[in-house]
Amino acid sequence: MRTGDALPPLEIPITRTLIVAGAIASRDYQDVHHDPESARQKGSPDIFMNILTTNGLVGRYITDHFGPRTVLRKVAIRLGAPNYPGDTMVLSGKETVEGTTATVRIVGSNGIGNHVTGTVTFSLKDAE
Length: 128
What we know:
This protein has 128 residues and is an alpha+beta fold. The chain contains 3 helices and 5 strands.
């Protein structure tokens, strides 16, 4: 790990199944995450991903790259453009390293803009 290193991008296809499964797994039963007609009645063109699913995908991006010794310390994200079915979110990041802690500035973009921006702070636990 070195400050300024860029992580390879991760492309995540946004499917209805991913959106609905993520909402169910995080116990977010808001109808805009599973019912297209309700989402349209509330002004959205379709169902959209919830923040908890996005948070999990951001964490996965870091742990997949740095491996099983990764310990997430802080995930601070902000949502922007919604993730709708049929789009692809591309996660990218840049590292800042300070001693035994690293922070990655995250951007997750889709076809309409930045879906998520923020930072993930983590450390690598010692091998046992």
